[in-house]
Amino acid sequence: xxxxxxxxxxxxxxxxxxxxxxxxxxxxxxxxxxxxxxxxxxxxxxxxxxxxxxxxxxxxxxxxxxxxxxxxxxxxxxxxxxxxxxxxxxxxxxxxxxxxxxxxxxxxxxxxxxxxxxxxxxxxxxxxxxxxxxx
Length: 135
Hints:
Strands 1-2-3 form a three-stranded mixed beta sheet. It contains six helices and three strands; from the N terminus they run H-E-E-H-H-E-H-H-H.
């Protein structure tokens, strides 16, 4: 069985291309970033402690960084789920918080991603986000 961490090691590069059809709030022809897990992971890891973003803002910032108008929300959803699951796997394996991707900085309490995770993971991510919001 492939671990979530293994899934993140995919070497598939990001793409910048036109949106082929109207979908997920994007308009046909807009320049779209289809992110890779690596660029999303790197972006989140660079967020300083206490700097929380909404997923919408994460997508907007990545789009600007890669000279696109939008970031694919569907791909972003898959990537955030993989990052969250991998972070939880690492936490369960005893990894120090400092080496785990701080995905809680971009997962709002009502995030669709959180709804797909095990309850202990959700509680951990929500607690970390709340603690950093207070700092």
